[in-house]
């Protein structure tokens, strides 16, 4: 999925970034985590996160919600 496609989904509320207020980074959409690999070029498309990375994003999301309280 392209960055512009996912940014539009965030804008409409259909997708949620891991960190509120960000447009680039791990994003939850359609029951799955999407991300841009760290070694990818700046204009790279989003990719589905594998199970291990998804578990890490889930853990970070839980921690973030606790901090946001």
Brief summary:
This protein is α+β, with helices and mostly antiparallel strands and 69 residues long. The protein has helices at 3-12, 51-68, and strands at residues 16-17, 27-29, 32-35, 47-48. The chain is 41% helix and 16% strand.
Order of helices and strands: HEEEEH
What's the overall geometry? Answer: globular
Q: Strand-residue fraction?
A: 15-25%
Show unreliable segments. none
> Helix share of residues?
40-55%
What does the average pLDDT come to? 93
Number of helices: 2
Q: Provide the gyration radius in Å.
A: 12 Å
Number of self-contained structural domains: 1
Distance between the termini: 31 Å
Sketch the major β-sheet. Answer: 4 strands, antiparallel
The count of DSSP E runs of length 2 or more, i.e. the number of strands, is 4
Q: Which strand order do you get reading across the main beta sheet?
A: 1-2-3-4
How does the helix and strand content classify structurally?
alpha+beta
Topology, pairings included?
Blueprint: H1 3-12, E1 16-17, E2 27-29, E3 32-35, E4 47-48, H2 51-68
Antiparallel strand pairs: 1-2, 2-3, 3-4
3D architecture notes:
The protein has 69 residues and is of the alpha+beta class. The longest helix is centred in the last third of the chain and has 18 residues, at 51-68. It has helices spanning 3-12, 51-68, and strands at residues 16-17, 27-29, 32-35, 47-48. A hairpin with a 2-residue loop joins β2 (27-29) and β3 (32-35). The chain has 2 helices and 4 strands, in the order αββββα. Strands 1-2-3-4 form a 4-stranded antiparallel beta sheet, with helices on one face. It has one domain (3-68).
């Amino acid at each position: 999925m392209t960055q512009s496609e996912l940014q539009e989904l965030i804008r409409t509320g259909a997708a949620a970034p891991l960190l509120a207020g960000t447009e680039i980074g791990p994003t939850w959409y359609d029951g799955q985590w999407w991300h841009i690999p760290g070694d990818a070029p700046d204009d790279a498309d989003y990719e589905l996160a594998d199970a291990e990375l998804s578990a890490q994003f889930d853990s970070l999301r839980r921690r973030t919600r606790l901090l946001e309280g």
